[in-house]
Recover the amino acids of this structure.
C-alpha cells in the first residue's frame, strides 16, 4: 500500500496547524498578562495621583520626574488598552505580530511600574507669585500707632491685634505700610491680605485666603465646613504667617473660616481693621485705637498732598488753615480735599471750597458735649429705650448703649466719661440721612425762628443754644401736624407767643430748659394732649404754668430750678407721670392732698426739702 503522498500531506499540514494552535494559546496567555500589568500600572498611577493631591494642598508643585512618570504611565496604559481592543479582530496571520507587540508592551509597563517608586515627597515648594505691595501715601501722625502694631507683631506676647477707629481715620493706610514692611522681614514666611468689607461672607473669605496660598478650592464641593477643614490643615502645616483682615464689619469665628488660633507655638499672627471695638474683642484681639490727627500733623499731611509751594502765597494762609480744620483730623478727608485743590492758587477757589466744607458739616454746635444722663432721659421719653422695672435698670441699659456706640466710633467719650460728643463725620452723615425730616440749627446765633427752613412736614426741630428772644411765627403759621420734638433750651428765650402751639397738636417733647428770661407759659400749652415730656429745668424766672389737667399722656415734668409758687393745676391728673421734678425753692403752698398718691407710676420724685410737705 502506498503511503507516500498521504504522509507528505500530513507533513505539510501538521506543522502550520501546530504552530497556529501554539500561537493561539500563547496569545491568550500574553493577553491575560497584558491586562494584569495594565491594571497594576493603573493602580500605581492612581496611588501616586492620590498622594499628589494631598501634598499639593500645602502650596507645593509636583516634581518634574513625577509629572513625567504620570504622563508615561498614562501613555502605556492607553496603548495597552488599544492592543487589548485589537486582539479580538486579528486573523491567524497577524497573531504572531501582535503577540510580539504584547510582549513588548508588557515589558514596557513592568519598567514604568518599577520607575514609579517615589519613597520621598512627590512635590517641591512652589514659588510664591501672589505677593503684592500697595501704593500707599506717606504716613503723617500715625507713626506711633504703626510702631505699636509693629512691636506686637515682632513680639511674642500678643497674637491677635484689632486696629480700631472710625471711617477715614487711617486704619487701612497704616496696615498697608505694615504689610509692605512685613514682606521684607524674615520672621514670617507668608503675609496674607484679605479685604473683608461690609457684605461678610465666609465662603468669599475662605476663597481669598486660598487664593493667597495658591490654592484652588473650587475643585471641591462648595461647602464652608469642608473648606474650613482644608484651610485649617493647610495653615496648620505652614506656620509663621500673618493674616491681615481689612475692614471687618461683623464678628466671626476663626474656626468657622478655618484659621488656626495664632499662638507662640505656631508663630502666627492675626490683624484686623474695624470700626467696632466689640468685633475685635469678640475674637480676643488686643485693641489699638487710631485717633484723629492733631492740628500740626493734619496740616503737614495736607501740605504734602496739595503742595508746599502754597505757603509762598500769604493771602492763602488763613483760608488754607481753615480748610484743614474743616477736615476734622481725618486723613482720608484731608488727602481727598488736598488733591482736589492741588494747583489752585486763586483765593476765590479756596474760599468756595471752605464754604462747601462748612455747608456739608452738620448744623450743630461744633464739638458739642452732652451729658450721658441727659441723653438717656431723651432716649427714655422718645421711646428709644424701653422703661425697665426701675430707673436704675433703665439707666444701665442706656449706658450699655453708650458703650456700644463708643466701641463702634459713633460717639466719643469726654469729661471723664460723663459726657459724649459726636464726631463731625458722623454728625454729617446723621443729618444727611434725616435732612428731609429734621431741622437742626443749633448754636447758629439765630435771633428768630428760621421760618423759611421750617417745612410743614418736619418731625423734629433743634434750635438750642441760639439768641432767639421771642418764639412766634409771622402771618403764615406753618402746619406742624407732624412735629413731635422741639428743642429750644439755652436759647435766651423771654416770650412764647400764645398762638405758637395752636398748630402743634401732635407735639410730644418740649424742652425750654435754661431759658432764664421766660416768666410764663402760654395757656395754649394746656391743649397739647399728646405731649409726653415738658422740660423747663432752670428757667429761673418762670412763675406761671397753666393747667396741665388735659396732658394725660405726660410722662416727664421738670420744673426744677423754676420760680413757681404752687404746683400746677391738674398735676394730680397726670397718671402716666414717671418723672417729676418740683425742686423749686419758691414753692409756697403744700402739694395738694392725694396728688402724689394718684401718681402711682412715679419712679423719680424730687422736691425742695423746705417744701416737701406732702401728706
Amino acid at each position: 500500500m502506498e503511503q507516500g503522498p498521504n504522509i507528505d500531506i500530513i507533513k505539510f499540514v501538521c506543522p502550520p496547524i501546530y504552530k497556529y494552535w501554539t500561537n493561539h494559546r500563547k496569545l491568550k496567555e500574553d493577553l491575560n498578562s497584558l491586562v494584569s500589568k495594565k491594571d497594576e500600572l493603573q493602580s500605581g498611577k492612581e496611588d501616586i495621583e492620590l498622594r499628589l493631591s494631598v501634598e499639593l494642598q500645602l502650596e507645593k508643585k509636583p516634581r518634574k520626574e513625577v509629572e513625567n512618570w504620570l504622563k508615561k504611565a498614562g501613555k502605556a496604559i492607553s496603548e495597552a488598552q488599544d492592543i487589548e481592543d485589537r486582539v479580538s479582530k486579528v486573523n491567524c496571520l497577524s497573531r504572531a505580530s501582535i503577540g510580539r507587540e504584547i510582549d513588548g508592551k508588557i515589558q514596557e509597563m513592568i519598567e514604568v511600574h518599577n520607575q514609579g517608586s517615589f519613597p520621598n515627597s512627590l512635590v517641591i515648594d512652589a514659588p510664591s507669585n501672589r505677593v503684592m505691595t500697595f501704593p500707599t501715601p506717606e504716613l503723617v501722625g500715625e507713626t506711633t500707632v504703626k510702631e505699636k502694631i509693629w512691636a506686637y507683631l515682632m513680639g511674642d506676647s500678643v497674637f491677635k491685634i484689632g486696629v480700631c477707629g472710625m471711617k477715614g481715620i487711617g486704619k487701612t493706610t497704616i496696615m498697608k505700610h505694615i504689610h509692605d514692611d512685613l514682606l521684607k522681614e524674615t520672621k514670617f514666611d507668608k503675609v496674607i491680605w484679605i479685604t473683608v468689607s461690609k457684605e461678610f461672607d465666609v465662603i468669599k473669605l475662605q476663597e481669598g485666603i486660598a487664593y493667597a496660598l495658591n490654592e484652588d478650592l473650587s475643585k471641591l464641593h462648595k461647602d464652608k465646613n469642608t473648606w474650613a477643614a482644608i484651610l485649617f490643615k493647610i495653615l496648620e502645616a505652614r506656620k509663621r504667617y500673618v493674616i491681615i483682615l481689612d475692614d471687618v464689619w461683623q464678628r466671626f469665628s476663626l474656626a468657622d473660616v478655618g484659621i488656626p488660633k495664632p499662638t507662640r507655638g505656631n508663630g502666627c499672627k492675626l490683624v484686623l481693621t474695624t470700626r467696632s471695638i466689640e468685633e475685635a474683642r469678640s475674637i480676643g484681639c488686643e485693641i489699638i485705637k487710631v485717633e484723629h490727627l492733631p492740628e500740626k500733623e493734619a496740616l503737614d499731611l495736607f501740605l504734602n498732598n496739595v503742595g508746599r509751594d502754597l505757603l509762598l502765597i500769604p493771602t492763602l494762609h488763613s483760608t488754607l488753615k481753615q480748610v484743614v480744620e474743616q477736615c476734622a483730623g481725618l486723613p482720608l478727608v484731608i488727602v481727598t480735599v488736598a488733591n482736589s485743590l492741588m494747583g489752585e492758587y486763586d483765593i476765590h477757589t479756596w474760599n468756595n471750597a471752605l464754604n462747601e466744607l462748612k455747608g456739608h458739616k452738620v448744623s450743630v454746635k461744633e464739638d458739642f458735649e452732652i451729658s450721658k444722663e441727659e441723653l438717656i432721659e431723651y432716649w427714655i421719653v422718645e421711646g428709644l429705650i424701653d422703661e425697665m422695672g426701675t430707673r436704675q435698670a433703665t439707666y444701665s441699659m442706656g449706658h450699655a448703649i453708650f458703650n456700644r456706640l463708643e466701641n463702634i466710633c459713633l460717639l466719643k467719650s469726654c469729661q471723664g466719661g460723663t459726657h459724649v460728643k459726636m464726631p463731625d463725620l458722623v454728625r454729617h452723615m446723621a443729618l444727611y440721612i434725616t435732612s428731609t425730616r429734621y431741622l437742626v440749627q443749633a448754636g447758629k446765633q439765630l435771633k428768630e425762628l428760621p421760618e423759611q427752613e421750617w417745612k410743614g412736614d418736619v418731625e423734629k426741630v433743634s434750635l438750642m443754644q441760639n439768641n432767639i428772644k421771642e418764639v412766634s411765627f409771622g402771618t403764615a403759621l406753618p402746619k406742624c401736624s407732624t412735629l413731635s420734638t422741639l428743642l429750644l433750651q439755652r436759647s435766651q428765650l423771654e416770650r412764647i407767643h400764645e398762638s405758637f402751639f395752636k398748630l402743634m397738636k401732635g407735639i410730644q417733647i418740649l424742652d425750654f430748659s435754661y431759658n432764664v428770661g421766660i416768666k410764663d407759659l402760654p395757656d395754649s400749652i394746656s391743649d397739647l394732649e399728646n405731649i409726653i415730656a415738658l422740660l423747663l429745668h432752670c428757667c429761673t424766672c418762670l412763675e406761671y404754668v397753666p393747667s396741665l389737667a388735659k396732658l394725660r399722656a405726660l410722662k416727664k415734668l421738670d420744673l426744677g430750678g423754676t420760680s413757681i409758687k404752687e404746683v400746677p393745676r391738674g398735676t394730680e391728673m397726670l397718671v402716666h407721670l414717671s418723672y417729676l421734678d418740683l425742686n423749686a425753692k419758691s414753692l409756697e403752698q403744700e402739694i395738694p392732698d392725694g396728688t402724689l398718691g394718684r401718681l402711682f407710676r412715679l419712679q423719680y420724685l424730687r422736691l425742695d426739702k423746705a417744701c416737701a410737705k406732702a401728706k
Summary: DSSP finds 17 helices and 20 strands in the chain. The longest strand covers residues 190-197.
